Amino acid sequence: MDFVNKGLSSFWIIILSFIGIFFLINILPVIILITAGVWGVSYVIKATRKWHINRKNFFKGEAEKSEKVETIKQDFSEGFTTGKVIDVEYTEIK
């Protein structure tokens, strides 16, 4: 009974390390793939629900949201030249 009160023997440490390595190599990737699949499915479901709700609301209140737009007939060049024009001198860099 020499092994009493010595803690874990080297045999148990080796066994536990092999179990840990087995878990990391074989089981952890499966858990990660399942988690990614569940997340992806839930993301797609939420996106389609959001799209469906927005599509319904888009056509519902169209008459209330629309405004009458008046067309203004003016030359666009007049709008740019009515203010002060600042002349800037520059030199080209070669």
What distance lies between the first and last C-alpha atoms, to the nearest angstrom?
91 Å
The mean pLDDT is 76
Report the portion of residues in β strands.
under 5%
The best one-word shape is elongated
Oligomer, anyone? single chain
- Annotation, overall tally of beta strands: 0
Task: Produce a short descriptive summary.
With 94 residues, this protein is mostly helical. It has helices spanning 10-60, 62-65, 76-81.
List keywords for this structure.
mainly alpha
Q: Can you walk me through this structure?
A:
- The protein is mainly α and 94 residues long.
- 65% of the residues lie in helices and 0% in strands.
- It is built from three helices and no strands.
- The longest helix is centred in the middle third of the chain and has 51 residues, at 10-60.
- It starts with 9 loop residues before the first helix and ends in a 13-residue tail after the last helix.
Protein topology:
Blueprint: H1 10-60, H2 62-65, H3 76-81
